[in-house]
Write a structure and sequence with these properties.
This protein has a 3-stranded antiparallel β-sheet. Helix 3 crosses helix 4. It is mostly helical.
């Protein structure tokens, strides 16, 4: 299968998984949590979902490749897959702008802003 078709199918799966208010909320919660991730129960609480609902939503996100999970003791820790997230964003903008890189400059500014701890979070 052509690489572009594979990328297209992966993007469609990821975007389909994110096209639901609950799943998008959970994914954004995990993105904010950072690489440490969160236990499933904490994800449910932070997103305002019932545990069983959050569990089902996490399963959809995992099948789409947007989150990973790992058992740690009695908990299952979920993490956003930042590589998949970058690939999706890259796919969406890969043929963008007709050579005008300045159109995407605001995206670089967003990455700097979101990945810099606020004053209250600095150690």
């Amino acid at each position: 299968m052509h690489l572009w078709i594979m990328k297209l199918k992966n993007a469609i799966n990821a975007l389909s998984a994110l096209a639901h208010e609950g799943r998008l909320t959970i994914f954004r919660t995990l993105v904010r949590a950072g690489p440490e991730g969160m236990a499933a129960g904490d994800v449910a609480a932070a997103s305002g979902s019932a545990f069983t609902t959050a569990s089902a939503q996490l399963a959809v996100l995992a099948r789409a490749g947007l989150v990973t999970n790992e058992r740690e003791g009695r908990s299952i820790i979920y993490r956003a897959d930042y590589g998949q997230m970058r690939d999706l964003i890259g796919f969406l903008v890969e043929d963008c702008c007709a050579g005008r890189a300045e159109i995407l400059q605001p995206l670089a500014s967003l990455a700097t802003a979101c990945c810099t701890p606020s004053e209250g979070e600095k150690k």
